[in-house]
Amino acid sequence: MWRHANESNSGLFKPDELSGLQAESKCIFGISKKPSELSSKPLQINAFFKDCNYMILSAPGDRLYWFLFTEMNKTYGKSIARFTKEDERLLAEQHFADRVTESTTFQDIYENRLHTTLVSLADHVFPRWHFQRIITIGDAAHKVHPISAQGGNGAMETAAVLVNTLRHRMENLSTDKNLGDDDIESVFADVQANRFSRAVDAVNQGRRTTAASIKDTFLSRLFVDYFFPRFGQSMIMRLIIKNTETGPVINDLPVPKRYEDAVARHAAKNSESNWMLWSFGSAGVGFFALFMYLTLRWSW
Q1: Does 201 fall in a domain?
Q2: pTM of the prediction?
Q3: 123: how many CB neighbours lie within 10 A of its CB?
Q4: How many domains is the chain built from?
């Protein structure tokens, strides 16, 4: 798309569009056989350390899908690092002693690996997603940090908005007409306008979560040591439900009953609870963190 637009002298894209990509963390992603020390039941593990964190999920076939996130110097565009298998091995060995559960270390998981790769984690929302009859969705338009767990969802949301917008435009056409190039570009522009701010929010959420969980800062240590052990799982569920409730769906298609049931259960649970911290958003988190710090400081 960029090449075609530049060859057409459209002036709509910069020659270095990729320069907007930024990366300040890296990740070893892997699939492993489940170590015998871990429960055979479905599990999700979030383990935090001084300079890294883990997200580990059980999968069919006695497998684990896992991520080791670590910090790196912020880089942009073509300067974002690519890694070798030797780079991966050296990074993994630095974390072998990390105890992700009481009975399991990262070494146990890594040595049971089936597939692994080390990658830089770039994220960015590109300023323009379309040209003439071409539109990009997913990572090609809005690439988010995997710690936000919104990459695949974002692609599906943009696809749903594209379907809705295209159907609406076609329903308002005369029966003897087809969409022209101007109509198609207008549809694409409406899709981007509808999705842009939500895509930016997803990128920012990933960056905030990364900063809170792997950077060696006061706020990160406070979050990892005191906040997440007490409220982390509830926080994750609330964010997931909130994001799902506000996401676009394809018009005129029924929403699955399991989704409606899950939202209803969440609403009922919330109505029974007086804990309203997360209704204040990120500002509430900051004030709560400061409160906990002062409380702990005085208790010492």
Answers
A1: yes
A2: 0.80
A3: 25
A4: 2
